[in-house]
Write a structure and sequence with these properties.
heterodimer; A: 68 residues; mainly alpha; 3 helices; 69% helix; rod-shaped; B: 181 residues; Rna Polymerase Sigma Factor, Chain: A; Arc Repressor Mutant, subunit A; 2 domains
Chain lengths: 68, 181
C-alpha cells in the first residue's frame, strides 16, 4: 500500500526528489492558497443554505407595521 | 418603524452572509440564527444611525459582531472554559451533509483564538477589506493584518498534520489497526 502511495506521488511530482532548495516557500504558498480555498468552500456551503422562514416572516411582519 | 420595501429587501439579501458569519463565529446554528434575528431587529431600531450610501453589510456585521461579543463576555462570566466548549460544539455541528474535509477544517478553525478566527472570517471568507474589517472590529488595520496572518499560519500548522496523515493508510484502517494493537 505504501508502495502505491509512493508511486502516485512520484508521478505527480516527477522532480520532487531532485528539487532541493527553495521548495519550502513554494509549499508554504501552496498551503496558504489551499487554506484560502477551503475556507471559502466551507463558507460558500453556508452561504448557499436557504434563508430560514423566520427571517422573511420577521421582516414581512415588521413591514406591515404589525409591531409587537 | 416599518421598513420600506427597499430596506426590507436589502436586509433580507444580507441574511445569508450574516448567517454564514454567525455560524462560523459561534459554531452553533441555533445561536447563530438568534444572533442574526437580534441583529436585524437592532438594525431596524437604529436605522437612523445608518448613513445611506455606505456599506450596509459592514454596518450589519458590526452590529452582529458586537452582539456576539457582549453575549460571549456574559457567558464567559457564567461558564468557565468557553473556548473548550466552543470547540466541542463546532465539532458537533456539521449538518446538511458537510463533507469530512470541512469537518477537519472546522475543527482546526475552532482551535484558533476567537479574535484570529473573527479576523480571518471577515477578510478571508466574507470578502471585507482589511480596512473594513478593522472598522467592524473597532481596532487598527495593522492588528487585523497580524491576526489574519497568525490565523493562517496556525491553520497551516494544524492542517499540515492532517495532510501528513493522509499520506498513510486511510484513517479508518489506521484506527482499526491501532485498535487491534
Amino acid at each position: 500500500m505504501m508502495h502505491d502511495q509512493g508511486k502516485r506521488l512520484a508521478k505527480v511530482y516527477p522532480e520532487a526528489a531532485v528539487n532541493e532548495l527553495g521548495a519550502e516557500p513554494t509549499l508554504d504558498r501552496e498551503i496558504q492558497a489551499r487554506i484560502g480555498d477551503k475556507l471559502r468552500a466551507m463558507y460558500d456551503e453556508l452561504l448557499e443554505q436557504p434563508v430560514p422562514d423566520r427571517f422573511t416572516d420577521l421582516l414581512d411582519r415588521l413591514g406591515q407595521g404589525g409591531k409587537e | 418603524m416599518p421598513p420600506e420595501p427597499a430596506l426590507r429587501d436589502a436586509l433580507l439579501a444580507a441574511v445569508p452572509s450574516l448567517r454564514a458569519f454567525a455560524i462560523s463565529l459561534s459554531g452553533q446554528v441555533d445561536r447563530a440564527d438568534d444572533l442574526v434575528q437580534d441583529t436585524l431587529l437592532r438594525a431596524l431600531a437604529h436605522i437612523d444611525h445608518f448613513e445611506r450610501g455606505t456599506n450596509l453589510n459592514a454596518w450589519l456585521f458590526t452590529i452582529l459582531r458586537n452582539l456576539f461579543h457582549s453575549e460571549y463576555r456574559k457567558r464567559r462570566r457564567e461558564v468557565e472554559d468557553p473556548d473548550g466548549s466552543y470547540a466541542g460544539r463546532l465539532r458537533v455541528h456539521p449538518e446538511q451533509g458537510a463533507r469530512l474535509d470541512f469537518e477537519d477544517f472546522r475543527t482546526a478553525l475552532a482551535k484558533l483564538p476567537h479574535d484570529q478566527r473573527e479576523a480571518l472570517l471577515l477578510v478571508g471568507a466574507s470578502g471585507f477589506s482589511y480596512e473594513e474589517a478593522a472598522a467592524i472590529c473597532g481596532c487598527a488595520v495593522g492588528t487585523i493584518k497580524s491576526r489574519v496572518n497568525r490565523a493562517r499560519s496556525r491553520l497551516a500548522g494544524l492542517l499540515a498534520v492532517d495532510d501528513a496523515e493522509d499520506l498513510g493508510p486511510d484513517r479508518m484502517t489506521r484506527a482499526a489497526l491501532q485498535a487491534i494493537g
